[in-house]
Amino acid sequence: MTDERRTKRMLDLAARVAWRAWGDTDPNPLVGCVIAREGGRGDEIIGIGHHRRFGGLHAEREALADCRRRGHDPKGATLYCTLEPCRHVGKQPPCTEAVIEAGIARVVYARRDPGHESGGGCAVLETAGVESVCSDASMLATRLSDPFICRVRENRPWVIAKWAQTLDGKIATRTGESQWITGPLMRRRVHRLRSRVDAVLVGSGTAAADDPMLTARDVRRVRRVATRVVLDTGGRLSHDSALVRTAGQTPTVVVTASEATFPASVRVLRVGRGGDGVVDVTEALGRLWTELGVASVLVEAGPRVLGSLLQAGLIDEAFVHIAPMVLGDAEAMSVAVGRTAPRLTDGRRLSVVRARALGEDVELWCRRRGTGQS
Ligand SMILES: NC(=O)c1ccc[n+]([C@@H]2O[C@H](COP(=O)([O-])OP(=O)(O)OC[C@H]3O[C@@H](n4cnc5c(N)ncnc54)[C@H](OP(=O)(O)O)[C@@H]3O)[C@@H](O)[C@H]2O)c1
After folding, report:
1. 145 near 83, Cβ under 8 Å?
2. Do 3-148 and 155-368 show the same overall fold?
3. C-alpha radius of gyration, the chain, whole number
4. Other CB atoms within 10 Å distance of the CB of residue 319
5. Is 84 a residue of the active site?
6. Which CATH superfamily is domain 155-368 in?
7. Taking CA atoms, which of 208, 258, 270, 316 is between 20 and 30 Å from 363?
């Protein structure tokens, strides 16, 4: 097996293992690790581990522990990790220390850690005589760290949009009816997504039209309770809405540019207006991260908020649920509005991570282009 193919195989495996903890590690990254030894009859995987939950052991230490549990000595082996091993003391001691102590000969990692304190582990390893290589052989492993790197570099949460649409790209009828475009299996997917993010966000338009609860229901394990966030420039969210009435049970935030007041159970974040006169989305997202520690946001808004986010280049990932149905009505609501795009080159292109059928519908999982660089 060539070195490139071996690296891809190991890093792919590390990334797949890491995904198991999706929703449990934020604001830490998802990280997976595989320890392998090259042998005469091919590679032998002697340890696998991943970062399971915030504050828990890092992937490298999990993999080293797994290795010893299985009765192997990691001395001289290669350690494959989706993220550069950290060199700082956080909730756990530095991973570089564990790697050096174990006598690992070579470290191959998929992304450099851009953190001021945590990053730079490869230099520490090199100084200690451990060869360390950054590899982009596995797209899966490279992109795994996108949300973490986005938070560090852009000081804002990772933004995941989700919408349900017809084949002709409509997300509601001309009268605002959207429940339900897709079937029950897709709706279960949405509840699962909600159970893994820090916040679920809508605009005041969706709050008024659908009166949603935005909670995660009928999921096996709610990994984190998402704060419900409403972008509401003028403070028009009804005090009788389901969101306000249940704010005592589920955290709820209204982001507004007005002086409007809400019951004490609702947290109000006052921000400025953007150029279009509505809540400044860039400021809103930045403050959700810096003031409330929101690391990931699931946007379940309608066309206006989706249009604003697209325009600002703030949609990092999208789950698009497509029903095999055509409305054929020019007045029905499109996925996103508010942009001017006379040429195809004005469109925002995403890359498809995966397409799959669920019941009668199809889910397209997309990522913003341009992420995934070291
Ligand atoms: N099929 C689906 O997946 C789906 C999902 C969600 C909604 N919908 C449908 O979409 C329709 C509602 O559409 P909508 O466009 O009114 O919903 P929306 O995008 O959720 O809300 C739009 C409103 O949010 C407020 N807002 C605050 N800051 C904003 C910003 N930076 N950019 C844009 N808007 C901002 C504005 O009202 P203020 O001026 O009051 O702040 C704006 O009118 C409903 O019929 C609903 O059923 C469908």
Report:
1. yes
2. no
3. 23
4. 19
5. no
6. Dihydrofolate Reductase, subunit A (3.40.430.10)
7. 208
pLDDT of residue 275: 87
Closest CA to 260 of 198, 199, 204: 204
Domain ranges of the chain: 3-148, 155-368
User: Angle, to 10 degrees, between the axis of helix 95-102 and the axis of helix 59-69?
Assistant: 30
pLDDT tens, 86-111?
988 777 789 999 999 999 999 999 99
Mutation probe of ligand 1 site: the residue of 168, 178, 310 with most atoms within 8 A of C-beta:
178
**Residue of 76 and 118 predicted with greater confidence:** 76
> Does residue 206 have its Cβ closer than 6 Å to ligand 1?
yes
Tell which residue, 43, 85, 42, 41, has the closest CA to residue 63. Answer: 85
Task: Confirm or reject: Cβ of 171 under 6 Å from ligand 1.
Answer: yes
Within 13 A of 75's CA, how many CA atoms are on the CB side? 2
User: What whole-number distance in Å separates Cα of residue 258 and Cα of residue 280?
Assistant: 12
Assess whether the C-beta atom of 285 lies below 6 angstroms from ligand 1: no
For residue range 248-275, list pLDDT tens digits in order. 999 999 999 999 999 999 999 999 999 8
Please give the model's pTM, rounded to 2 decimal places. Answer: 0.95
What's domain 3-148's architecture? Answer: 3-Layer(aba) Sandwich (3.40)
What distance in angstroms lies between residue 363's CA and the mean position of ligand 1's atoms? 22
CB of 303 shorter than 6 A to ligand 1: yes
Is 373 or 233 the better-scoring residue by pLDDT?
233
